[in-house]
Amino acid sequence: MKSNTRTSFFTKPINLYYLLLVSTLSLSLLGLIMVFSASSIHSLESNGATYAIVLRQILFLVISIPMAWVLSRFSLARWKVIARSGAVISIGLLIGVQVVGKRVNGNQNWIDLGIIDIQPSEIAKILMILWAGYMLARRERAGVVQSNVITLISPVFLLCIILILAGRDVGSASVFAFILAGLLWVSGVRLGLFAGLLALGFAGMAALIATAPYRMARFAVFLNPFAEDQYKNFGWQPAHSLLGLASGGLFGVGLGASRQKWGNLPHAHTDFIFSVIGEELGLFGTLSTIALLTILLFSIFKIALRAKDPMVRYVSSGIGCWIGIQTILNIGSTLSLIPVVGVTLPLVSYGGSALIATYIGIGFVIGAARRDPAIFEELKKSEYRWLR
Predict the structure, then answer these.
(1) pLDDT (tens digit, 9 = 90+) per residue, 371-387?
(2) Directed axis angle between helix 273-306 and helix 310-334, to 10°?
(3) What secondary structure, in 3-state letters, does 268-323 show?
(4) 256-294 pLDDT, tens per residue?
């Protein structure tokens, strides 16, 4: 009886809408709390105040939430107008960062606007997903054979990946590659052909690793970051990430009591925020974070499956693939299951460009849910008018 009730809850269309909203806002709130905790020491040293970084994150969130609400009210026709120029804008942004961008931690992937820095590759992710979804939908309506899907979207994605790699940002390039793989899978590319493309992609990643000594060192160390000859070099980040997670126990050492954020764990509020969650909130905190991310992804993919319009289906699936692969890469790096690739944890890590881009994607999916007749009928009955 309980199993039937649980199945009913997760399959009822309106609950997908609520799960999407609750998981998004919960992760954002968790992110604010943990960014404040993880960044306080770094913020004091670099800005003279423990709250300087979290105030910027609050500002980004104050911008992002109303923006997502407005975007969720956009008609599909408006989204198609944006999608048509998505590839051109993305390439322009990525070329721009190579021309006028600044180098941070060895990667040239930021543009300094004076007041704030922006990361164009984050905006390009959602724009490329919109463009690819639009192109795949056009091809589906035209009834063209599946094999042409590869030549339709892959060349532009590869150009974006090359431009990102020119700035030495392997993490973002990997996310783009996996988004492409996810979209090709959703579009129905034959399994044998998909496997061949995947093998080619991994071969390319292996070549990138083998041809750069610092990447090779990161790859060689991730299985044993405590090795005597690497611990104080490339093993430092993954080693202290594991130390933080291991010291958290079941319920953590207490909010704000992390030891690793005191200079031992670089990028504690961005790439390694999951480690700080594990140290301060313990296994309970990490599993709760993973549960919220799982609920978010579940609701996105279920809404995508329910969509009648092919563009909505492709774009929503692409957004799910994007958030999913970034989650895997981030948590995998903190657990030393994969080499450190330097990507943020969606909605949780500090970063204005990443937060705004993610909320644009969430806004699209909320709009997709609202266009679902079964969901919209239930929303009209709600006493909370802002939900409608």
Answers:
(1) 999 998 888 887 666 66
(2) 160
(3) CCCCCHHHHHHHHHHHHHHHHHHHHHHHHHHHHHHHHHHCCCHHHHHHHHHHHHHH
(4) 989 988 878 888 999 999 999 999 999 999 999 999 999
Sign of the C-alpha dihedral, residues 243, 244, 248, 249? Answer: negative
Task: Report how far residue 239's alpha carbon sits from residue 111's, in angstroms, rounded to the nearest whole number.
Answer: 31
Per-residue burial over 58-82, b if 16 or more Cβ lie within 10 Å, else e, is: eebbeebbeebeebbeeeeeebbeb
Segment holding 107, helix H or strand E: strand 107-112
Q: Give the ranges where 101-167 is alpha helix by DSSP (H).
A: 120-142, 148-166
Residue 212 class from Cβ within 10 Å (0-12 exposed, 13-18 middle, 19+ buried)? middle
Between 98 and 145, the higher pLDDT residue: 98
Q: What does the alpha-carbon distance between residue 181 and residue 195 come to, in Å, rounded to a whole number?
A: 10
Token pair listed for 346: 């969606």
The conformation of residue 386, written as its DSSP 8-state character, comes to G
